[in-house]
Every structure is written in structure tokens, then in C-alpha cells.
Amino acid sequence: MTLEELKKRCENAGFEYAYGSFQKPTEPPHLVAFQTATNNFFADNKVYEKDKPIQLDYTYIYKNEEEQNKIENEILGDIAWNKTDETYLQAEKVWQVSYFFEL
Fold first, then answer.
1. Element (H, E) at 5
2. Which of 45, 62, 78, 99 has the fewest Cβ atoms within 10 Å of its own Cβ atom?
3. pLDDT band for position 85 (50/70/90)?
């Protein structure tokens, strides 16, 4: 999967989506993806395989298992992923779950 395919999957599943950040204020629920530190395979001063670790943050106000199932089954259904526990962000008054996978 590419970042463009990830964007299409998120939008087709009915989520507001951005890579990095939204350009204007966007109400939850929404998804934001960004690349985390790389974990490339290299030897002899040459990179042989580039990994693109992605963090996909799902931010919401009210718990909705149907939405989480869409993320896990429709968007990320064919790739290996992990996720964090649900975290309440007090300052923003929202909940967040982060999904981690590689493209």
C-alpha cells in the first residue's frame, strides 16, 4: 500500500483524513497519518530496503466500535498492525487510538 492508497481507503470508509495535519480545524472523528522514524535495512553504506513506518491516529469524542472495525477491517485489513490503548486527551477533550504499521 502507498500513502495515496491509504488516503483513498480512509476517505472511502467515510473518515476525514490528513497526512501530517489538517489545514483547517476539523471536528472528530478523523484520521491523521504521519511517518515515524525509519527502520531501513542497509549494509556497506547502502540502503537496500526502505521501510516506511506509519502512525495513524484515530481521534474521536464518542466511542464507536463500528468506526474502529472499519479502520481495522477495511482500511488496515490486509496489512499487519498494532494499536495503543484508548487515551483521553484532557486538554482537547477527545479520545485517541494510534495504529502502527509499515508501508
1. helix 3-12
2. 45
3. very high
